[in-house]
Design goal:
single chain, alpha/beta, Nucleotidyltransferase, domain 5, 2 domains, seven-stranded mixed β-sheet, five-stranded mixed β-sheet, 12 helices, binds adenosine-5'-diphosphate, binds ligand LANB7ZPL, transferase, nucleotide-binding
């Protein structure tokens, strides 16, 4: 008997979906949500019906009978700290994501939509490697101000998948290896993996700037900015209008490269600065692993860029060999995670936090 799994990855401007039959992708779609459409909604949760309908329309257009599904898996959203791997989506999780998400992030719809579809046909819904996976060592939790604890919020799904794949490529088990992984997408985060555990990370508010996010900033200047601007304006400057958007008015690394290739020296300075900051964060996490590193892994959409990865490799090659796994295989990682649960190769946890 084969397993048919619907994987759902809601992003800020798109909902990516795929149907897998065991390990094989049989349908895939990137449903774009133009910014004018998104702007109509006050919160992420308010976008639920619009995104749900577009997913169901896609299944209907392909004459796919939803009742054929064995399970539905969604990207794990902004929950309180959870373990890596699979969780069953239950009412407590949906309540938390709908009413008390720890940040506003499109991924909070992953579990909510997955559960709705799964329930309508009487199958199970899962999340896998949520953005809030927290395996940090205690020493990594200290921020520098007693009432601010560091939050483990990362592109865990793609980074763990890349680390597990790299371990296989070098003929080892993930639990035997040490890796520093950098996810280079519209947002950038990095993680240190020590013998199968993500013991520290650099989140998208703590490290390099990215195509659309500011990364870490001088705190005194940030505080001043908060006193002269409304909160939504500051938040937008940090997420959405930060990074390449702030300096170059585009979130497309491809467009920036185009400008550089046409002689734009300012674009080159900014783009190289992004590589420089990524390399610095890799150095920071290399220290966490005391330099004992099997591979540094660069993944995500911008890892397709030879210009950017060359700049990074030049600065970090002295630490460890660099593996480049471009793109993000989030839909595949979700589907294969759920498949392992369905086959009994992996346990799914019960979510019981409020
Ligand atoms: N071949 C490429 N060379 C350089 N940058 C690329 C390439 N392909 C995609 N990108 C860039 O990757 C970024 C998006 O990465 P992705 O991992 O898809 O992020 P997200 O899922 O966060 O939107 C964009 O800035 C895009 O321009
Ligand atoms: C850092 C948390 C995960 C995240 O920001 O994902 P996106 O870059 O896909 O928005």
């Amino acid at each position: 008997m084969s397993f048919k799994i619907l994987a759902i990855n809601p992003g800020s401007t798109s909902t990516k979906i795929a149907i897998y039959e065991d390990t094989k992708e049989i349908y895939k779609k990137n449903i774009e949500h133009p910014s004018e459409e998104i702007a109509k909604y006050k919160s992420i949760t308010d976008q639920y019906e619009m995104r749900y309908k577009q997913i169901m329309d896609f299944l209907n257009e392909n004459n796919f009978n939803v009742k054929e599904l064995t399970a539905v898996v969604g990207r794990g959203g902004p929950l309180p700290p959870v373990r890596s791997g699979a969780y069953r989506v239950n009412d407590a999780m949906v309540d938390r994501l709908k009413n008390r998400p720890i940040i506003e992030h499109a991924s909070n719809l992953g579990a909510i939509i997955a559960k709705e579809i799964a329930e309508s046909i009487g199958v199970e819904a899962f999340i896998y490697d949520s953005i809030s996976v927290d395996e940090l060592d205690d020493i990594a939790r200290i921020s520098g101000v007693a009432d601010i604890e560091r939050q483990s919020l990362t592109h865990c799904l793609n980074m763990r998948a890349a680390a597990i794949k790299t371990a296989g490529n070098i003929g080892k088990n993930y639990k035997e290896c040490n890796f520093v992984v950098a996810h280079l997408g519209g947002g950038i985060s990095l993680s240190a993996h020590k013998k199968g555990r993500m013991v520290d990370m650099v989140s998208d508010v703590e490290g390099p700037f990215s195509p659309e996010r500011a990364g870490v900033l001088p705190t005194d200047k940030l505080v001043s900015m908060c006193y002269t601007n409304e909160q939504p304006i500051v938040k937008k400057k940090l997420r959405g209008n930060g990074g390449l958007v702030s300096y170059l008015n585009t979130n497309s690394a491809l467009e920036v490269e185009n400008r550089i290739n046409n002689g734009d020296e300012y674009a080159k300075l900014v783009y190289e600065a992004m590589a420089y900051q990524i390399a610095k964060a890799i150095g920071e996490l290399s220290v966490v692993l005391e330099g004992k590193i099997d591979k540094i892994i660069l993944t995500g959409g911008i890892a397709y860029s030879k210009m950017l990865t060359d700049w990074i490799v030049k600065r970090v090659a002295f630490i460890a060999p660099v593996e480049i796994l471009p793109g993000e295989n989030e839909l595949e990682s979700l589907a294969l995670g759920a498949l392992r649960v369905l086959k009994g190769e992996e346990e799914a946890y019960e979510y019981d936090l409020n």
